[in-house]
Amino acid sequence: MPTLQSRIPPFRRYIEPFAGSACLFFRLRPTLAILSDLNSELIATYRAIKRRPLPVFECFNEMPTHAEFYYSLRNADPAGMSHEARAARFLYLNRYCFNGVYRTNRQGRFNVPRGVKTGRPPSAADLMACSCCLAGATLLSGDFYRVILRAKAADFVYLDPPYPSSSRPTHGEYGYGTFAASDLPRLLDGLRILDSVGAKFLLSYIDFPDVARLFRRWRVERVLTLKHVSGFARHRSAISELLVSNYRRPRG
User: Fold this and answer.
1) Which residues contact 172 (CB under 8 A, 6 or more apart)?
2) CATH number for the domain formed by residue range(s) 2-36+143-245
3) Over its length of 252 residues, how does the chain's per-residue pLDDT go in tens digits?
4) Comparing C-alpha atoms, which of 175, 186, 190 is closest to residue 141?
5) Which residue in 32, 92, 127, 162 has the fewest CB atoms around it within 10 Å?
6) What is the number of alpha carbons within 13 Å of residue 201 lying toward its C-beta?
7) C-alpha angle with apex 173: 160 to 91, nearest 5 degrees?
8) Homologous superfamily of domain range 57-129
């Protein structure tokens, strides 16, 4: 996070097409933003927290933590729930599933088993703080390219797409249909569009062989970062990432 923060330029509006946890957004707390993600359940959760954080917390807080309830809730269809209950379900499954992993089957149903070691559940104050941060954010669900087309001069766009994985197409990590290596040409085209309209962008991407040359028309840095999401702690190690930008690194 400090590495990213030191590279943030002045901007009018913040845009994140691969929002995920939106941790950079929540750290920066911009007054105007567009957050988008292909995961419609995630965006529905953000929308509910933005509008009614306390009812979401109340729904979440009423849910028992035993395994029987976990699997019952996991198998429930969120489409038939209220906005608040649907958001509480997403938070609950994310908190109590194995390792906080998001994975679906080919029908789009969440299928991660219950975890044993889980983190602290969110408090009412946590959700209230998130709601305040989201007050000026437009929340969208869909393909990253459509969000890029919304960018204008003086916008700052942070892109952190899922990295290539040989297991993701088989096991549904992040959901089926998520960003893959085959989407790189569209991503490159999107970066050119951002350049042409005067928007500034920062891209985080894995440092695979021959990938850096794809971005050679812009500024490319290599940084080491820890890989936090892995099934086993021994597999969480430092990896090399690329930071690609179309502006000079701010001083100070």
Assistant:
1) 103, 104, 105, 106, 111
2) 3.40.50.150
3) 999 999 999 999 999 999 999 999 999 999 999 999 999 999 999 999 999 999 999 999 999 999 999 999 999 999 999 999 999 999 999 999 998 888 888 888 999 999 987 778 999 999 999 999 999 999 999 999 999 999 999 999 999 998 765 544 555 455 556 788 889 999 999 999 999 999 999 999 988 888 899 999 999 999 988 765 545 555 556 788 999 999 998 876
4) 175
5) 32
6) 29
7) 85
8) Adenine-specific Methyltransferase, Domain 2 (1.10.1020.10)
pTM score of the predicted model: 0.90
Instruction: Record the tokens describing residue 112, joined without a space.
Output: 């991660």
- Tell me how far apart the alpha carbons of residues 135 and 94 are, in angstroms, rounded to a whole number: 23
Residue span(s) of the chain under CATH 3.40.50.150 come to 2-36+143-245
Q: Which residues pair with 113 in a beta bridge?
A: none
Residues of the chain with CATH 1.10.1020.10: 57-129
- In contact, 16 and 36? CB cutoff 8 Å: yes
Contact 103, 112 (CB under 8 A): yes
Spell out where the chain has E strands: 13-16, 33-37, 137-141, 155-159, 200-206, 219-226, 238-245
